[in-house]
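Hi U.,

Before I forget, here's the chain from the pilot set. I'm dumping it here mostly so it's searchable later in email.
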Amino acid sequence: MKIYKLYNDGFIIKTRRATVAVDLVPGGPNSHPFIADSIFYRIAGHCDAMFISHKHGDHANLKVAKAFAARGKRVIAPKGLWVGVDPMIEQLLVADTAVTIPFDELEMTLHILPGHQDDIYNNIYVMDFKGCGSVAHTGDQWNEDDLVWIDKVKDTYRVDCLLLNCWVNSMERTIRGFNPRVLITGHENELEHTIDHREAYWMTLRKMDKMLSLNVPNVLMTWGEWFEYKK
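Structure:
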């Protein structure tokens, strides 16, 4: 499978049978977005579904969600986000428990784990592309209490590629909990954040230097780059 990194923490995962997007946003001010609406409409045409981790504007954008819905593509959002906007935009209605959604038409199973950024619902997605590998996306996971169950994720889910926000609470513990074969970080250089919370690429490099004992290869990409994973 190929994993493409778009702006901020947005990714597209493409396998032989499915192409799904997570947390796609245009970035920049509404009057001058970094990525035009027309481009997202074209991207939606090449994808089969999109998943939104949480409500913050650097991860969730209603225009992008509507572009997917207009192309007949399912959008999965966390509890309480964009309720009643479009029948193609579905909310996770059960909070604080894991949920499994079959995508039989894509030969994929979506597992939604009940993460949080502080007290904000933050869906952690584990996407099992049957026979092609599995990918987990953590959104803006931060809540310290969640680490108790994150420690045991590896006991239930096999994760090949972990897409991890670079400023996650307890990076080493989170990586151990998911036990991925490959780590790809996101959220570096989000330009709408202030300088003190923009997460420079060199910060990720320094953090990864401290993770060498985990023996998990890590990939640092910038916008528009992609990584190919083969089982």
